[in-house]
Structures are given as C-alpha cells and as structure tokens.
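Hello forum,

I keep getting stuck at the same step: I have a sequence, I want structure tokens, and every attempt I make locally crashes halfway through. Rather than fight my setup again tonight, could one of you with a working pipeline run this one for me? It's a single chain of 292 residues.
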Amino acid sequence: MIRPPQSALQLAPICAVILIAFAANSVLNRMALVSGDTGPAAFAALRILSGAAMLVFLVMRGKGGVRRLATGLRWQNAAALATYVLGFSFAYVTLDAGLGALILFGVIQITMFAGSILAREDIPPRRWLGAGLAFFGLVWLLLPSGSTAPPLAGAAMMTVAAIGWGVFSLQGRGAKDPLAITAGSFTLAIIPGLAVLAFTGLDGINAQGAALAVASGAITSGLGYALWYRLLPQIDSSIAAVLQLTVPVIVMVGGMIFLSEAMTLRLLIATLLVLGGVALAVTSPSAPARRG
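Reply #2:
Ran it on my machine without issues. Output:
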C-alpha cells in the first residue's frame, strides 16, 4: 500500500541516510583511485557485480521474485546504466570528488530537461530560466582558465556518465516495479562491465580497493537505491528533486574531510549557480503535458 505524501521533515532520518549514500559513491570511488588500490575498470566492474547481487537479493525476497527479475531485464536500460557506472569511475581518475559530483548532477538535470523537450511537455518559463542558469554555471566552470579549469578528459567522461544516468532515469519514468528494473539492469550491465575490464587489461585491485568497490555497489548503490524507491511514494516529486540538490554539497564536504580536497572560489560560484538554477527549475509549477 502506497502511503500518502509526507513532509521531508517527517522523513528526515531516512532522507539523510539516502543522500549520504548517494554522495558516498563519489567519495568511495575517488578514494580508491587516489590511493592506487584499484583501477577504474576494476572498481566499476566490482561495483556493478556487488550492486547486482544486493538488488537481486532484495527482489527475490519479495513475492514473485523470479518473474519480477525477468521483467526487469531490459538491455536499453542496462546500456544506459553501464555507461553511467563506467564513465563515473573513469572520470574520477582525474576529477576531485566534489567537482565530479557537480558536473554529474548538473548534466543529469540538463539531460532530463532535454528529455522533457523531446517528449513535447509544456515547460513553464521559470523552469526554462532555472535550466539556463544551471547550464551557464556548468559552462562557466568548464571553460579553460589556467590551472582552475577541470581536466578535460575527466569532465568529458563525467558528462558521458551523467547522460547515461539521465537516460536511465528517463527510461524508468512511470515504471511499476523500479526496484526490479534496477536489479535487472545491474545484472545485464555485468557484461559490458567485465568486457571493459578485459579490454583495459585487468587494471588491478587489492583488498582495500575491493572493499571500497563492494561498499559502493552493495551498500551505497544497491541499498541506497532500494531505500530511495521506497521513499519516493511518500514525498512530493518536487521535494524529491530539491533534496537531491544537497548531494554535490555533501560530496564536497566529504572530499574535504576524507580526501583533503580544496574548495576554490570558481567551484563555489559554479555550485551556487548550478544548484540555484536546478532549484528554480524543479520547484516551478507543473504544466499540463502537451499532446502530440
């Protein structure tokens, strides 16, 4: 039974756990790569494997688990998910955790905004303004400017990852069983994950790197996504979108604490522009969908 929407304040504890889990993916991935405990392909492959194991376990615990899992096996969803996980991991070879999260978050929102345009939805003016402000913040952040510009390769890989996650999210809109679809997608994504690992020559992973990858896959991805899907029916969609605005900020704090990353003025201004623009966009009044 789906519960009626509740305020974010009533659900604050579980909201905090979920948002920290989402943010932890960036910190864990960057931590494993910086320390040399793993290569990006090995981390991504193990993250997918452990995430699939956790999500399949959760699906199988419920009624009709095998049938649900079978309906969730969708190659197009798995391809988008694999693009996200692999791009994410390779991007963090050169990007700081906070910078990567900001690029990821901003491009995801732009991708989903583009999806709304392609679906011929009526978009309120305030949403256009918010999307434009967020896009300007990202462009300004990524423009070359001496040593403050982010590494081009890392920014490009994170952009690809964000498009993958945005497409995966758009594909899952209105899904009757999002947990099963996510479990099926992780399961199929094992194939491209292992293929990239083999192609890169098994870039190596030690015990500590494996522990970080499993934590990212099984706990902060698998359990994090499961909790998020359980929470969504209980809050308004606009509140859910605004809550996610805190993720890049949490990542930046985590990066400063665990990775000694610095907060530059350029990154701070870009963060305010992107998060402010997205907040403006997601809190604008909904408009009726245009029929085509």
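Residues 288-292 have pLDDT under 50 and may be disordered. If your local run keeps crashing, start a new thread with the error log.
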